[in-house]
Amino acid sequence: MENFRKLGIIEPILKIIKEQGFKEPTEIQKKAIPLVLAGDDVIGGSATGSGKTLVFGSGIIKKSEKGRGIQSVILTPTRELAQQIKRELRKFSKHKPLEITAVYGGVSINPQMDALRTADVVVGTPGRMLDHLERQTIDLSHVNTLVLDEADRMLDMGFIEDVEKIISQCPKNRQTLLFSATIPPEIAKLSENYMKDPIKVSAEVYVDPKKLKQIYYDVRPNLKFSLLVNLLKKERSGLVMVFCNTRRNTDFVANHLKQQGIETLAIHGGLTQKKRDDVMKHFHSKNVYVLVCTDVAARGLDIKGVSHIYNYDIPRDSKEYVHRIGRTARAGKQGRVINLLADRDYDNFTRVLRDNDVEITKEQTPYIEKVKLKELPKKRPFLKRSQRVRRGWSDIPKHLGAGHHQVRSGWSEKRKKQRPRHGQTRYKSKQKHSSY
């Protein structure tokens, strides 16, 4: 505790640090917290899970006062990271309560508009922040701290122009903090344009390379999934993350692992926000031990207890490999990275070896029996009522009459013939015959 106190952290935060049982500050915390509390602009080079939320959180909580408008903004590349930072900041501000809200796409904007009226700190994704600016439902005129978290990831996702538009709406007299695992030229230019004499600090890789074993298997394409099933059933220990490059592969692997009796969840950008929240909640609770995901989960999310990383697809971008393997071998624990190489993965794997300082050893592929894949039930596509009727899929109950089940017009052929033409009546009038 004394080492945290020496950094200058205020007493309300020290109380929660003690309650959470933190023993020693991380490297990035030791280097950056005194600078942040002194009001300097800081560029922090650190990976996910290194404790940077406490770095910028200590400054934000110290300077912010409840009820004085939005005083701090944290921009993040993903919805999951925005939610995670909101939870962490609420935890650190337990003894100095602040209104902290998160804004991101994929959910209704109206509740966010209501929350922004009383917010002191806002965590958000660039796209939804711009939506609020255009609607004039957010006021950034009182912002004194701006944080750009996972800046290189925002660059990769094409958010830099949006970020610059948001920065332009903040007061020039502010503190700007930028955190990024890498500092490409575009991020360096961003810091030159919008930061005042920033001080650069960096932390060593949080993953312990001595405790991280990386291997690969050469496997025929038609046996790749069978090898994955074999390894997962044989090497069960902690939590497992399986990475795929596409949503389609993610769903394929997750659904067929379930068929093999392996507790599995899938997460990717195609899921609704509620579904993604439910998936992460279950995985964090360790009720399910395999998470199949795209790279949306490789950055920003702090998932503890991951013992194995499987690269079912080798990433196209060699930098993503480093971010993927950074999920395991943390805090002195053992970790394994298993790469499954089929013909189509060789080019990507060559780039990974060329661009990164990693040591990956080849393992002898064990004898495996091919897993028989069962055909998954096809999901019936959502169609409007008119489309269902036209395609003959109407679900209107039969007792409502045959006419409701006819294709297109809904009229039977017999009733069509009975329909009166324009200017005619439906039935012929009865003629009166005189008996006189």
Write up what this structure looks like.
With 436 residues, the protein is of the alpha/beta class. It folds into 3 domains: 2-202, P-loop containing nucleotide triphosphate hydrolases (Rossmann fold, 3-Layer(aba) Sandwich); 209-362, P-loop containing nucleotide triphosphate hydrolases (Rossmann fold); 385-418, no CATH class. Helix content is 37%, strand content 15%. It is built from 17 helices and 14 strands. It has helices at 2-6, 11-20, 27-37, 52-63, 79-92, 110-116, 126-135, 151-156, 160-168, 185-194, 224-234, 247-259, 273-284, 318-325, 346-355, 385-390, 413-418; strands spanning 42-45, 72-75, 100-103, 121-124, 145-148, 175-180, 199-202, 212-218, 239-243, 264-267, 290-293, 306-311, 335-341, 361-362. Strands 3-4-2-5-6-1-7 form a 7-stranded parallel beta sheet, sandwiched between helices. It has a 7-stranded parallel beta sheet with strand order 10-11-9-12-13-8-14, with helices on both faces. α3 runs parallel beside α4 (52-63) and α7 (126-135) crosses α9 (160-168). The chain starts with a helix and ends in an 18-residue tail after the last helix.
Number of helices: 17
Which stretches are low in confidence, meaning pLDDT under 50 for 5 or more residues running?
A: 394-412, 429-436
Radius of gyration using CA atoms only? 29 Å
CATH architecture annotation name of the largest domain: 3-Layer(aba) Sandwich
Q: How many structural units, i.e. domains?
A: 3
Q: What oligomeric state do these chains adopt?
A: single chain
C-alpha end-to-end distance:
121 Å
CATH class of the largest domain: Alpha Beta
CATH H-level homologous superfamily name of the largest domain: P-loop containing nucleotide triphosphate hydrolases
What percentage of residues falls in helices of 4 or more residues? 25-40%
Kindly name the structural category: alpha/beta
Give the CA-based shape: globular
Write down how many β-strands occur, each being a DSSP E stretch of 2 or more residues.
14
Largest sheet: 7 strands, parallel
CATH topology of the largest domain, by name, is Rossmann fold
